[in-house]
TrEMBL record:
<dbReference type="InterPro" id="IPR003599">
    <property type="entry name" value="Ig_sub"/>
</dbReference>
<dbReference type="GO" id="GO:0043031">
    <property type="term" value="P:negative regulation of macrophage activation"/>
</dbReference>
<protein>
    <submittedName>
        <fullName>VSIG4 protein</fullName>
    </submittedName>
</protein>
<dbReference type="Pfam" id="PF07686">
    <property type="entry name" value="V-set"/>
</dbReference>
<dbReference type="GO" id="GO:0032703">
    <property type="term" value="P:negative regulation of interleukin-2 production"/>
</dbReference>
<feature type="domain" description="Ig-like">
    <location>
        <begin position="125"/>
        <end position="196"/>
    </location>
</feature>
<dbReference type="InterPro" id="IPR013783">
    <property type="entry name" value="Ig-like_fold"/>
</dbReference>
<dbReference type="GO" id="GO:0042130">
    <property type="term" value="P:negative regulation of T cell proliferation"/>
</dbReference>
<dbReference type="InterPro" id="IPR039939">
    <property type="entry name" value="VSIG4"/>
</dbReference>
<dbReference type="InterPro" id="IPR007110">
    <property type="entry name" value="Ig-like_dom"/>
</dbReference>
<dbReference type="GO" id="GO:0001851">
    <property type="term" value="F:complement component C3b binding"/>
</dbReference>
<feature type="domain" description="Ig-like">
    <location>
        <begin position="12"/>
        <end position="112"/>
    </location>
</feature>
<dbReference type="Pfam" id="PF13927">
    <property type="entry name" value="Ig_3"/>
</dbReference>
<dbReference type="GO" id="GO:0045957">
    <property type="term" value="P:negative regulation of complement activation, alternative pathway"/>
</dbReference>
<dbReference type="InterPro" id="IPR013106">
    <property type="entry name" value="Ig_V-set"/>
</dbReference>
<dbReference type="InterPro" id="IPR036179">
    <property type="entry name" value="Ig-like_dom_sf"/>
</dbReference>
Length: 196
């Protein structure tokens, strides 16, 4: 249907992790997005969190400052990303859009998502062991991926060398990649996973 917002009914987010509340529509000619607001209802009161209008993006609730954002460059995608979820972030979130049509009439649509922030039992990371003695041809692309279970967020670091010895930090992503392997890349690599 024309200018229908689609979202989801419920989102379960994990405490201290990030979550996205989907809100999308198909942009159509002759309709211009005037304002977008995201609001939260809890304890029978509603507050606006985020507003986008012709003057830009505004975060109106201090508890969400630096923690919420909406995509800027993907027309029709106005999903709300919330980072570092806190328990009080639980509530009903409403995405409301007002469009102006070419004949200057206004159309409003909204969609509401219930968010439940859940605590998971805090567990330390456990790394799933990779293969030892990987043999890869010179010039090939390859990557090593560190996979750990445990409570998010988990930070990864890759080193070359041996744990406890001298080690060179190579990256702080879960994946360590090479575009073109050289003989000098031969060696021992290890991954470190860390959470709170």
């Amino acid at each position: 249907a024309l200018l229908d917002l689609s979202g989801v009914h419920e989102v379960k987010g994990t405490w201290m992790a990030s979550t996205t509340l989907p809100c999308t529509y198909m942009p159509s000619e002759g309709f211009t997005q005037q304002t977008l607001t995201w609001s939260i209802e809890r304890d029978h009161s509603t507050s606006t969190i985020f507003r986008r209008d012709n003057s830009g993006d505004h975060i109106l609730l201090s508890q969400f400052r630096d923690r919420v954002s909406v995509p800027k460059h993907s027309p029709g995608d106005i999903s709300l990303l919330i980072e570092n979820l806190e328990i009080p972030d639980s509530g009903h979130y409403t995405c409301r859009v007002i469009w102006r049509s070419t004949n200057n009439s206004l159309i409003t649509r909204e969609v509401t998502t219930m968010v439940k922030v859940v605590k998971v039992a805090v567990t330390k990371p456990v790394i799933r062991a990779g293969e030892l003695g990987l043999v890869v041809p010179v010039g090939a692309r390859t990557s090593l991926t560190c996979v750990a279970s445990g409570s998010p967020p988990i930070r990864y670091r890759w080193f070359r060398g041996s744990p406890g010895g001298t080690a060179l930090l190579l990256g702080s992503q879960a994946e360590l990649a090479w575009d073109s392997l050289q003989p000098s890349d031969t060696g021992t690599y290890f991954c470190q996973a860390e959470n709170r």
